[in-house]
């Protein structure tokens, strides 16, 4: 398994960051057939070959993702997509 970890700082505050994360997670669930389950300021995501979480903090958002063997070959591409999506969502 390959582990991807991406963290982005923000100055939005927890509530505004969570609202932006909710929009982003909704978009990703549609595009990538993810299942998402919110618990407080954390959302667990999963699909065949990948699972992880998005954690919302007062001043940061952290994405942790574990990829199975097939998706591991695309880990740098997936990490880049996560980074771009977070940067865009937090802009």
Mean pLDDT: 93
Q: Which structural category fits the helices and strands?
A: alpha+beta
Radius of gyration: 12 Å
Count of discrete structural domains: 1
Strand order of the largest sheet: 1-5-4-3-2
Order of helices and strands: EHEEEEHH
Shape: globular
Estimate the helix proportion, in percent.
Answer: 40-55%
The appropriate CATH architecture is: 2-Layer Sandwich
Question: End-to-end span in angstroms?
Answer: 31 Å
- The number of helical segments is 3
Strand percent estimate: 35-45%
**CATH C-level:** Alpha Beta
CATH fold-level topology: TATA-Binding Protein
Instruction: Outline the biggest β-sheet.
Output: 5 strands, antiparallel
Poorly predicted runs are none
Number of strands: 5
Please sum up the structure shown.
The protein has helices at residues 14-32, 69-72, 75-90, and strands spanning 2-9, 35-39, 42-47, 50-56, 60-67. With 91 residues, it is an alpha+beta fold. It has a single domain, classed as TATA-Binding Protein, CATH 3.30.310.
Q: Overview of this structure, please?
A:
- This protein has helices at 14-32, 69-72, 75-90, and strands at 2-9, 35-39, 42-47, 50-56, 60-67.
- The protein is of the alpha+beta class and 91 residues long.
- It has a single domain (2-85), classed as 2-Layer Sandwich (TATA-Binding Protein).
- The longest helix has 19 residues, at 14-32.
